[in-house]
Each structure stands twice: as structure tokens, then as C-alpha cells.
Predict the 3D structure of the following.
Amino acid sequence: MHYGVFNLPALYPEIATDSAPFYAHLRAQVRAAEELGYQSFWFAEHHFHGFGGMLPSPHVVIASMAEVAPRLRFGTGVVLVPFHHPLLTAEDYATVDVLTGGRLEFGVGLGFQRLEADNFGCPLDTSRARFQEYLEVILRAWSGAELHYEGQFGRWHAPVVLPRPVQ
């Protein structure tokens, strides 16, 4: 059996202090998980409210935390795919996979909070279709082949998407 940590902090701005202590505490949790023999550490992505706290960019956090825990695998629980440009998502998470030596677990989802969806211009009634299209673009980008994709929500044409993920 393998054990991991799923981090979904709640942050309430009216009682919050500076951001730096939050991330310092998170780094200490990652370090402790590594020392205690856990196999993985997972981060949620949320925006604009206390549910999920200050984790709007899991790829940035994972790249930083991997330095203090060279054995842990890191996961996203989940990347809110419809809210991001799919080629940028492919590049960002491939970069994290490379920087962690192939220790990334790429968990994806479509989101459910109207506040997030509305602020990113992604109505909840289109998020499922957008999710499916964007995920297909991400996976094709990681294949290494030239990318030509025309969908309902965009057109993407790239001779190559770099870096390629390790895994």
C-alpha cells in the first residue's frame, strides 16, 4: 500500500496573514511527508476564494517543492483544464515533469465553481466540452508530433511543443 498527502487548504482572507508563511508551512509539510516515507503529495487548484486557499498555480508550487523532497511524486488534484490555454498547460506541466525527473502525476478536472468559471470566461455549461477538447490538445502536444487541431473552442497549430514530458 502507498500513502500520500492531498493538500486542500482553506484560507479565509479576513483572518489571513502574509502569503509567505503559508508557503513556508506548505514546504515544511512536504519535507515532513518525504521524511516520513510518504510516496506522494497532491495539490488542488482553486481561484478567488478560501476553498483551496492560495494554490492557483500547482505547477509553480510543485517545481519549488520538488527541490526539498527529491523522492516524492507530486500530483495535481486537479488541474482545472477548461480555464487554461491547452498548449500553455502542456508546456507548463511537461516542464514540471522534466524538472522533477518524471515524478509528476497529472490529474485533471473541469471545475465546478461558478466564481472561477465566470472569471475565466468559461461558462459551466461549456466546461465539459471545453475540458474534452483541451485535454485532447494537451495529450497530442505531448506526443511530439506536429500539432494541427481545429475544435469548437479554438485552433492550434504548432510544429513542436517543448519540452516533452519525461513520462
Q: What stands out?
A: The first helix runs from residue 19 to 35. Residues 54 and 137 are 28 Å apart (CA to CA).
